[in-house]
Amino acid sequence: MTQKERVTFVINTLNELYPDVPVPLDHKDAYTLLIAVLLSAQCTDVRVNQITPLLFTKADNPYDMVKLSVEEIQDIIRPCGLSPMKSKGIYGLSQILIEKHNGQVPQDFEALEALPAVGHKTASVVMSQAFGVPAFPVDTHIHRLMYRWNLSSGKNVVQTEKDAKRLFPKECWNKLHLQIIWYGREYSPARGWNLEKDIITRQIGRKEFLK
């Protein structure tokens, strides 16, 4: 298969498996999505979805969030890990949203990435899933599969994102990055991986994974 044929095979297979693909993190608007994505760093989406209802009952907007102390936020989100850093980030970004953005999440990569505890991946998720702006956030699943499928070198997530954006049509990005995440969890996990179940890797994967 040529690279172009591999890309087409990936898109077609994922569209068959996941014609309608949900966002893994529960949220109701751009702010709650931003907080959920921030909490998901080094934490499973399942755990985040268990914790965010507890947090959002008390504060689901920046104005209510700054009424809580950093310590109160930390106590709630502790099961997500990295709670000292994340609680400061949540409180700090909520303050900035009020002071600089009228309490609204900005629809702008630069403004998002200027917020405390918000990196490029978090900003990309918010831009793509909250605002519909084409982006290709790369998580561990996408990084792993782009390498397994011989579509990226696997050197780092920055390179993987560049390769994904170069190879896949822009109009596919927002749906495709979610499809790859769901596929990675269901068919091509890092652990307990079964090649027989992994349709795409079996068809187009690197030789080292086909043994």
Task: Provide the fold topology.
Layout: H1 3-17, H2 30-39, H3 45-58, H4 62-65, H5 70-77, H6 83-101, H7 109-113, H8 120-129, H9 140-148, H10 157-167, H11 173-186, H12 199-204
Question: What's this model, at a glance?
Answer:
With 211 residues, this protein is mainly alpha-helical.
Key features of this structure:
211 residues
Question: What this model shows, in words?
Answer:
It is a single chain. The protein has 211 residues and is mainly α. It has twelve helices and no strands. Helix 2 (30-39) runs antiparallel to helix 8 (120-129). The radius of gyration is 18 Å and the shape is elongated. The two termini are 18 Å apart. The mean pLDDT is 96.
Poorly predicted regions: none
Which whole number gives the mean pLDDT?
96
Order of helices and strands: HHHHHHHHHHHH
Q: Tell me about the biggest sheet?
A: none
Principal-axes shape call: elongated
